[in-house]
Specification:
Blueprint (H helix, E strand, L loop, with lengths): L8 H15 L3 H11 L1 H18 L4 H4 L2 H12 L5 H29 L6 H21 L12 H10 L1 H5 L8 H6 L1 H30 L5 H31 L5 H24 L6 H14 L7 H8 L4 H26 L3
Helix pairs in contact: 1-16, 2-3, 2-5, 2-16, 3-5, 3-7, 5-6, 5-16, 6-7, 6-12, 11-12, 11-13, 11-15, 11-16, 12-13, 12-14, 13-14, 13-15, 15-16
GO cellular component, one term: membrane
Subcellular location: Membrane
Protein name: Major facilitator superfamily transporter
């Protein structure tokens, strides 16, 4: 990418993988702390810490890793079993709204922003995150019984559907040894790694591909890079909705639903990404369509491995996801490095 900072391809790979060196640090501890002190507090402090570090330096990733394990801890006491796919998917789909907004905004700020252009990206995003924290602490509660905005009918429905989980001791020790000896858990980790491998490479390398291969300028680059993530947002929600419907109608069992979601997501991603690589010069529109379908349909995986953490161990979903995310950060670290080595020119 040509600009104020001119780096070789392998150097770009190191920079793009740098986020995951920090992101890996707080995954397991984030899930553990959410179980001990509540997801509301952990997520709020995490985002606030990330906001402050975004404003002053490059260390934001060291705190942001706690967010999704803490979300899983919260959903374990908020999401009824037959609504888990949709509700959990909504959380992750919300992150795609951020991607969709930040990518074009970053392109514009890089070209027209204050403080020399690209530094303004960090200042604007950091300031927005601070405002988000204020809303989070004002509106969100750790448990349904602590919420001042939930109706009595909804509270009874949630508590009845999650009676066993709510009755268990959320502060009891995490069975670390049993987790690492469990074959289903390791199968889940494998699915998680496969899903995040493609997602992380696309997130870090898609702008480079569109700039270097398709020849797009920075202003249009941000908007076109956002298109696949709009599709991603749609398919995360659609996949969760369909998965819950299949289970509620007794068409598929829980395990069959999760497997189908992973087959659709990873199979579609592989097919369309391979197809993108076989497009010729002058077929930029077709490439963008293939990338949009590949990335978009991969969002169905959130009705697969993501919610499966809540299926197999709802009481320890936060720490379990923290372990899974820690392992898959390896994909985020080596993916950009691999791209840099394979595309030196």
């Amino acid at each position: 990418v040509m600009g104020e900072l001119v780096w070789k391809k392998d150097e770009q790979g190191y920079v793009l993988s740098a986020f995951f060196w920090g992101y890996i640090c707080s995954q397991i501890i984030g899930g553990y702390l959410a179980g001990r002190y509540g997801g509301r507090l952990v997520i709020g402090i995490t985002v606030l810490g990330s906001a402050i570090l975004t404003l002053i330096g490059p260390l934001a990733a060291t705190t942001s890793g706690a967010i999704f394990p803490a979300f899983h801890t919260m959903w374990s006491v908020w999401a009824p079993p037959l609504e888990r796919s949709l509700l959990t998917g909504l959380t992750y789909a919300g992150a795609q709204i951020g991607n969709t907004a930040v990518m074009p905004l970053s392109g514009l700020l890089c070209k027209y922003g204050f403080a020399g252009g690209w530094p303004s990206i960090f200042y604007v995003i950091g300031a927005v995150a601070v405002l988000w924290c204020l809303l989070w602490f004002f509106f969100v509660s750790d448990r349904p019984s602590q919420s001042k905005r939930i109706s009595k009918k909804e509270l009874n429905y949630i508590e009845n559907s999650l009676a066993d989980i709510l009755a268990s001791d959320s502060k009891k020790a995490v069975p670390w040894l049993a987790i690492f000896k469990s074959v289903p858990v390791w199968a889940l980790f494998c699915g998680h790694f496969a899903g995040d491998w493609g997602a992380y490479i696309m997130a870090t390398s898609l702008p480079l591909f569109m700039n270097d291969v398709l020849g797009l300028d920075f202003a249009s680059l941000g908007f076109l890079t956002a298109i696949p993530y709009i599709a991603y947002f749609v398919f995360i929600n659609l996949g969760g909705f369909v998965a819950d419907k299949l289970q509620n109608a007794n068409i598929l069992s829980t395990i069959a639903t999760r497997r189908l979601a992973m087959i659709v997501a990873l199979g579609s991603q592989a097919i369309f990404l391979i197809a993108s690589g076989h497009c010729g010069c002058g077929q930029e529109t077709l490439v963008i369509i293939f990338l949009t379908l590949g990335i978009g349909l991969s969002g169905v995986q959130y009705a697969g491995f993501v919610v499966n953490y809540l299926d197999i161990a709802p009481t320890f979903a936060g720490p379990l996801l923290g372990i899974g995310n820690t392992i898959t950060c390896i994909a985020g670290i080596i993916g950009p490095l691999m791209v840099g080595k394979l595309t030196p020119t």
